[in-house]
Design goal:
Blueprint (H helix, E strand, L loop, with lengths): L1 H20 L3 E2 L2 E5 L5 E5 L7 E10 L15 E11 L2 E4 L9 E5 L7 E9 L5 E8 H5 L5 E4 L2 E4 H11 L1
Parallel strand pairs: 1-9
Antiparallel strand pairs: 2-3, 3-6, 4-5, 4-8, 5-7, 8-9, 10-11
Length: 167
């Protein structure tokens, strides 16, 4: 009995340590429709922290498919690393600033039948990831002034309040 207790305690402690090694993921990215009718993203890091990478990827929404399905991600997206980093702000989904070193893959437009992921990494103020997942259909359903964040439509005020709570 004592051995079972010791083994169980060891497993729980190990699980806690391993879980603590992964940086938290927050919904600090919002997707929305720009005035130009194209998809835009808002990167909202905590405070004045820097973002050192942004990654846009997509994969088919078919059941059983994921971003880890070989070749699935290569149809639409891009990634960029920054040194020393950038702050937050809004930008067209497929038109990052020319000063960024961007590696595009696939078509640089939103495609139907695909789920998109936008995430950023911030190594400052406690290391964390900002992310959002959405589809073309999610964006098409947004009302003027709404953003897609945290797997649902939100007002910009709700998004700012979420950010303030997490940061």
């Amino acid at each position: 009995m004592r051995r079972a207790w010791l083994t169980g305690t060891t497993v729980l402690v190990a699980a806690g340590v391993l879980a603590g090694c992964s940086p938290p993921r927050y919904h600090l990215v919002a997707a929305y429709n720009g005035d130009d009718g194209k998809p835009w993203i808002m990167l909202a890091p905590c405070g004045r922290t820097d973002i050192t990478s942004v990654h846009v990827s997509s994969w088919p929404t078919d059941r059983g498919r994921s971003p880890y399905t070989p070749g699935a991600e290569q149809q639409s997206g891009w990634w960029s690393d920054f040194d020393p980093g950038i702050g937050g702000g809004s930008l067209p989904l497929f038109a990052p600033p020319g000063s960024w070193s961007v590696q595009p893959h696939g078509e640089q437009r939103i495609l139907p039948g695909r789920r998109y992921s936008v995430d950023f990494y911030s190594p400052e103020d406690g290391v964390y990831y900002g992310q959002v997942y959405f589809t073309a259909e999610d964006l098409a359903g947004l009302e003027p002034g709404e953003v897609w964040a945290g797997d649902r439509a939100k007002t910009r005020k709700e998004f700012r309040e979420y950010r303030a709570d997490k940061c």
